[in-house]
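Appendix B.2, paired examples.
Example (i):
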Amino acid sequence: MTTTEEHKSGKSPRPRVAAAAARASIVMSERDGDDVPQWLRDVAAGKAISKAAVKI
């Protein structure tokens, strides 16, 4: 791409990428027998979450 070409705004793929990463994390956590936080399940489902919901 050159500087004269217009590029697409990359906002739409990010939620899909986050959901895919969350699904992979859930699978690994469940396989290890670890608890999966609800906020991670919400991200995998494509729901919007707040930073306050994330407790690591």
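Example (ii):
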Amino acid sequence: MKIFKSCAVIINILPAIAITLTVMSCSSRRSILLPGPVTAGENKQVEDTRVLIIWYDASVGKDALMKAVSNMKCKLLYDYKTFNAIAVKLPDGAGTENAMKKLETVKGVINVQRNSIMRLDSKTRPAAGNLQ
């Protein structure tokens, strides 16, 4: 029974740990504002469709990716340190789909995806002590 209580505590703190690690992994010097609690009716996603997250293979490196980003006149927003990815903003007038396809062909790139906002919802998480 003690094991289940310990697991419940760990499950309850995992979201906070994940957010902390993500924020700490950014190399940007800009301050990051985290939104307050979401109330009913406010769970709308506001996204900039010109921001892309690009995952790369660490064994290949990111030199070719960084050159492609520069050639495409993208703005580097974040260079993540905890995982092998960067966030870039496409220049005005750049087609998102075409840019994604072009970046996917760069040596070492594993995945290119649009930036999106995901909110943790306590309604979908089991309550402590109710892990069955």
